[in-house]
Structures are given as structure tokens and as C-alpha cells.
């Protein structure tokens, strides 16, 4: 969700951990493991999150690789539709809050917003800069690309994983897919891209947030959050059949239809709502850092998993 740089007494230990993580991240890169894969299949681009050993936890390297992949697909006139998928057993376990490749203190060339680099800043200054760029800004940027996108979801789709699925125009889920936004356990009122009331409806949004519990693909379908639920074995074929059907439509018509729905969603308050909730989100991070040792209320991937099982 965020970094703790400059926030607490754990800083020195954190620096040693950071060095170890940088080393591990360089190892990932040195082994030629792309964090995102790109493949063109006819008129459909398949973008695959590719950190399967970490359940596709989203570090900044992955964020920028997703951004580059979306840009590539938009710039290629042969591509009409984009499918976003996850390698391995799960779609995405969320933001990287503890893998060896966690890279929250690394600078990247910023793409989503014009703001200063978070690296070298302290407290809310650093968190706000980073999360506006790599989470809220990036998600909005991807939602607004002019080609239809389909999230192909199986296994876990948790917190930051929801953001990646929600920015896509359509979602096809395997029967084994499950969803959750458990960050209220950290005292945080939902992930940064706060689409919950619009994609789930207010009642289910509150249940999901208040309990932190998983909900199934079937429940997500009932709520209108996903378009299709299919057996895991049929997921790829069903998703590509839908993508191919859409790819036969005129590209400019698709771009305008997408923009039309997005604009109406924003007229229904989504964009303004997200802006206001982003402030609450950062009050929560700052409160955690002020009263405890870090902005995530001392939770990491392991303790979050333990709390939810
Ligand atoms: Zn956050």
C-alpha cells in the first residue's frame, strides 16, 4: 500500500532489508524474468502479470511494465482488444508489501501525474507522491485507454489486484476466482482506486470492507462486478471468444462507446468520489505512521494472510 521511509524507528533495519530486496530484485531481472509478458494473438494483445512465485504481487517495476504494455497495445493499429491476465495460480495478490522485489524506494520515470519523485521525501509527502503516481494515477490512465480491455481472472484477486481488474472494461472470472479488499485490517478504508461503491453497489461495498472477507466469482457476478463466470478450464477460450467478437467492431466506435460509459460513470460521481476518498486513505496511512511504527499498521503480506484465514 505504501512505504514507511522516514516514518519510524524501524528505519535502519528497513534499510538493511531494502538492500537485500534490491539484490533479490536485481536477481529477478538478471534471470531474465520479465515481470509482465506481452503477446499479440491476432487482434488481441495478451498482457500477463508474471511474478507467479509472489502471486503476482504488484511492485513498481510491474506497474511501469503494465503501463508500457498498455501503451504498446494502444500504439499498434493491428490490436483491437487487450486481455489482462496473471501467470501461475492466481491473478494478483495485491500490492507488493513484502516480497524480495519490493521496490518502494526506487525512482522510476513518472508517467501518470506530474509531481515530484517520492524518493528522498518523508512521511505523507513521500506516500502521497508515490501512491498518486503508481496507484491512483496509473489506474485512471489505464481505465481511459481507447481500446477495450478484459481482465481474465482466476484464483486470488486481492486489494491491489482488484484495482487491476476494475480498470478493465469487462471481467471474465474462473469459477475458482475469489476477491477481497481486507485493508480495513490496517485501518485503511479500501485500496487507492476506490471504485467499490460503483462496481459493487454501496451495500456489498460496505460488507466487503467491514468484514475483509473473500467473496466468490458467483457473488461478484450477482453484484454485476464481473461479466462472465466460467470453469477454470474454459477461462482462456471464453475470454478470447469474447475479445474476438469485440475486435470485429469498428475501433473508433469502440473507443467512443468506452468513453461514453466512462464519462457517465464519472458523472455519477466516481472520479470526484475517488479524489475525496484518496484523502481519507492518506489520513489512515498518516495516522498509522503517527501512532505506530509504519503506515501499514505493522501488517505485512504474511500477517494479512494469517488474519484472513
Ligand atoms: Zn496506500
Q: From the coordinates shown, what is the CATH architecture?
A: Alpha-Beta Complex
Overall tally of structural domains = 1
Report the radius of gyration as a whole number of Å.
19 Å
The end-to-end span amounts to: 20 Å
**How would you name the CATH homologous superfamily?**
2-enoyl-CoA Hydratase, Chain A, domain 1
Give the strand content. 5-15%
Give the structural class. Answer: alpha/beta
Across the major sheet, the strand order is 1-2-3-4-6-9
The low-pLDDT segments are: 1-11
Find the count of extended strands (DSSP E, 2+ residues): 9
Hetero compounds: zinc ion
Determine the number of helices (DSSP H or I, runs of at least 4 residues): 11
What summary fits the major beta sheet? 6 strands, mixed
Rounded mean pLDDT is 91
CATH-defined topology: 2-enoyl-CoA Hydratase, Chain A, domain 1
Helix content: 40-55%
The level-1 CATH class: Alpha Beta
Label the overall shape: globular
What order do the helices and strands follow?
Answer: HEEHEHEEHEEHHEHEHHHH
Amino acid at each position: 500500500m505504501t512505504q514507511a521511509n522516514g516514518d519510524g524507528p524501524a528505519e535502519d533495519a528497513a534499510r538493511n532489508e531494502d538492500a537485500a530486496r534490491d539484490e533479490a530484485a536485481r536477481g529477478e531481472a538478471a534471470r531474465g524474468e520479465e515481470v509482465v509478458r506481452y503477446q499479440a494473438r491476432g487482434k488481441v494483445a495478451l498482457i500477463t502479470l508474471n511474478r507467479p512465485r509472489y502471486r503476482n504481487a504488484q511492485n513498481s517495476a510491474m506497474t511501469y511494465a503494465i503501463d508500457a504494455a498498455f501503451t504498446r497495445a494502444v500504439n499498434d493499429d493491428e490490436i483491437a482488444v487487450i486481455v489482462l491476465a496473471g501467470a501461475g495460480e492466481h491473478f494478483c495478490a495485491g500490492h507488493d508489501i513484502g516480497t524480495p522485489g519490493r521496490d518502494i524506494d526506487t525512482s522510476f520515470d513518472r508517467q501518470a501525474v506530474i509531481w515530484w519523485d517520492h524518493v528522498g521525501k518523508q512521511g505523507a509527502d513521500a506516500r502521497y507522491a508515490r501512491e498518486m503516481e503508481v496507484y491512483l494515477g496509473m489506474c485512471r490512465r489505464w481505465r481511459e485507454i481507447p481500446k477495450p480491455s478484459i481482465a481474465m481472472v482466476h484464483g486470488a484477486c486481492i486489494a491491489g489486484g482488484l484495482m487491476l481488474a476494475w480498470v478493465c472494461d469487462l471481467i471474465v472470472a474462473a469459477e475458482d476466482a475469489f476477491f477481497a479488499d481486507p485493508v480495513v485490517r490496517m485501518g485503511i478504508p479500501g485500496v487507492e482506486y476506490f471504485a467499490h461503491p460503483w462496481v459493487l453497489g454501496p451495500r456489498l461495498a460496505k460488507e466487503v470492507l467491514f468484514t475483509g472477507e473473500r467473496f466468490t466469482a458467483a457473488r461478484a457476478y450477482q453484484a454485476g462486478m464481473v461479466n462472465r463466470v466460467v470453469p477454470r478450464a474454459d477461462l482462456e477460450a471464453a475470454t478470447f471468444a469474447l475479445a474476438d467478437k469485440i475486435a470485429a467492431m469498428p475501433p473508433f466506435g469502440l473507443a467512443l462507446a468506452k468513453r461514453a460509459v466512462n464519462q457517465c460513470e464519472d458523472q455519477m460521481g466516481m472520479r470526484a468520489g475517488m479524489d475525496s476518498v484518496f484523502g481519507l486513505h492518506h489520513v489512515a496511512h498518516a495516522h498509522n505512521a503517527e501512532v505506530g511504527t509504519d503506515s501499514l499498521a505493522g501488517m505485512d503480506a504474511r500477517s494479512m494472510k494469517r488474519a484472513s484465514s
